[in-house]
Amino acid sequence: MIQDTVRILRNDRETGLYYRLTVRAPRVAPLIQPGQFAHVRIAFLGEALLRRPFSIFQVADETFSVLYKAVGRGTEALARMRPGDDLSVIAPLGHGFTVPQPGGETPLLVAGGYGMAALYLLAQRSPQKGVVFVGGRRGADILCEEEFRALGWDVRVTTEDGSRGERGLVTQPLIDEVRRAAAGRKLFACGPTPMLEAVGGIASEFGVPAELSMDEHMCCGVGVCLACVIAIRKGDGWEYQRTCTEGPVFDARTIAWKARG
Amino acid sequence: MNLSVQIGRLTLRNPVTVASGTFGYGVEYARLLDLNRLGAVVVKGIRLDPVRGNPTPRTAEVASGMLNAIGLQGPGVEGFTARYWPFLAGLEVPTIINIWGTTVEEYAEVARRFDALGGVGALELNVSCPNIKEGGAQFGTDLRLLHQVVAACRKATSLPLITKLSPNVVSIAPYAKAAEEAGCDALSITNSFPAMAIDIETRRPRLANGTGGLSGPCIKPIAIKLVWDAARAVRIPIIGMGGIQSAADAIEFMMAGATAVAVGTANFYEPQTALQVMDGLSEFMHRHGIEDVREIVGSVKMEKRS
To answer: I need a labelling partner for A194 at 20 to 30 A (CA). Which of A236, A251, B85, B258 fits?
Structure first.
């Protein structure tokens, strides 16, 4: 974890409201593990003070990039920033995905929308190529499909409106796949919480291990404020753990989905 | 140049501390800044037993501030002592432990436990958390209970005692006086303000708890007024806090009567704030030829403008 000022190299619209931001961050980039995030201060925000967390997408020697959707004040302000502008980042943060050992499990990645970005580095660093299942409401929500294909991965696309790939939810082709073969496979997922809960259910039903990248409203990003907690099983009960520190990636079996304070 | 100040018999090397609940247990920020440059580390509120805290969402960003309703999640006295105390005890700067309870007896028992620990800098009594049903603010908004809880802790420990007063009173002066009379050594002013925000699309409160505490730069002018009011009512030192994000903010609190200050919400978005405040304070003193930081305390000029 480092706090650094990084320079924007590019900040371009991908499709629809989605943007790709690349920064030069020579101190941060070498430290990044798959599934970790960067906590970014957008100085232009004025009276909106808090940092925004972004999953790290790609890492090159001295740079890293994130994918984001301009849907709120933070991301809309970020979208207006230009190459040459500086950002304050605290990164890399959080406990990420476990990269499979050589000859170990074959990864099956499950992504909802731009959750795909958080899985890219895992795909790149996994010694075994696997399958990535990506779903979205419509075609415009399917991002970085080409980047995964370029890694030699099998990419299976579903959209709820059928405008791209198969029509339906991302979990359907996943169920078909683990029904065909479950042994020696492991699920890794990032996306909306209902999708993650469904993936957790599939993992449990078919006896496949799964790691889920959980999303909870975040504030400090470094473990002090205790805003971003989720319920994690402990003994016979459960306790709150921080998605910024113990997570965002958790073993699916440990998540107490039904627990509410 | 002298930057040191006294909080009871506790000497702070400089007047810049952090607000309880915004700095975890210190260790979380140790990789981002040199904790030994702070006046003191102030940890998140601890009661006797572990506390699970409130459901999420626990925070909401609002204009120039935020709401929180964490619910004082914490490891309890034993959990804190085992997991965090060894690190804190190794720091060169004092640790101020924020404590709370649901009864007067529990406050006193927690105070006794930390007294026995040895090496604690001071205890800060949280009688002002807006986010828990029992304990917290009920002690800070009732003069008789406030006196009782401070007096009971005073009996339980010889550590310097700081009472963190609630802003949620008509006039803070009687509460400041009650805490002073009951034997506390300093006051922390202020805590977050009871507040609410609503998501108009869902018509639901933005916090799962319904309401929470407002903090950040938006509360600063109200907090300055509270410090000023309290400073005229008591002789004990005041630690001023509420929206500090720069040295100028800290100096304002000191001019209003605060002997020391605490950086709170700003830690969440700029962890370097406390150190920036320190540097800016030294620079201000240098620029104005101020030899001793205590010269700033209470130096606001209230005479009528001609």
So the answer is: A236
Q: Do A41 and B269 touch (CB under 8 A)?
A: yes
Catalytic annotation on B153?
A: no
B281 is written with which tokens?
A: 């304070």
Closest residue in B to A240 (Cα) is B52
Task: Of B302, B301, B298, give the one whose Cα is nearest residue B255.
Answer: B298
Please state, in angstroms and rounded to a whole number, the distance separating the CA atoms of residues A237 and A215.
22
Integer Cα distance of B5 and B292 in angstroms: 9
> So what's the architecture of A216-261 in CATH?
Ribbon (2.10)
B20 within 8 A of B136, measured Cβ to Cβ: no
| pLDDT score, position B134 | 65
A254 three-class SS: helix
Instruction: Extract the runs of DSSP E, i.e. beta strands, from chain A.
Output: 2-13, 18-24, 37-41, 52-55, 63-69, 86-93, 106-112, 131-136, 154-159, 166-167, 185-190, 210-213, 229-234, 237-242, 249-251
Contact B56 A228 (CB under 8 A): yes
* List of chain A residues whose C-beta atoms are within 8 Å of the C-beta of residue B55: 260-261
Asked if the C-beta of B299 comes within 8 angstroms of chain A's C-beta atoms, the answer is no
How far A31 CA sits from the closest chain B CA (Å)? 14
Q: How many CB pairs under 8 A join A and B?
A: 92
B174, two tokens: 């009687």
In angstroms, the CA A44 to CA A53 distance is 16
- Measure the CA–CA gap between B99 and B136, rounded to whole angstroms: 10
Interchain contact B57–A (C-beta under 8 A): yes
Pick the CATH number of A97-213 from 1.10.10.200, 3.40.50.1820, 3.40.50.80, 3.30.1330.40: 3.40.50.80
Each residue of B11-51: pLDDT tens digit?
999 999 999 999 999 999 999 999 999 999 999 999 999 99
Kindly state the tokens that stand for B171.
Answer: 């006039």
Nearest CA in chain A to B33: A3
Number of domains, chain B: 1
What topology is assigned to A2-93 in CATH?
A: Elongation Factor Tu (Ef-tu); domain 3 (2.40.30)
- Domain ranges within chain A, ordered by starting residue: 2-93, 97-213, 216-261
Closest chain B residue to the Cα of A47, Cα to Cα: B64
Q: Which residues of A touch B (CB under 8 A)?
A: 1, 3, 41, 47-51, 88, 90, 216-217, 219-220, 222-230, 239-240, 245, 260-261
Contact call for A224 and B61, based on CB within 8 A: no
**pLDDT tens per residue across span B182-229:** 999 999 999 999 999 999 999 999 999 999 999 999 999 999 999 999
List the single residue in B28, B57, B269 with the smallest CB-CB distance to A223.
Answer: B28
Is residue B208 one of the residues assigned to a domain?
no
In-domain check, residue B118 = yes
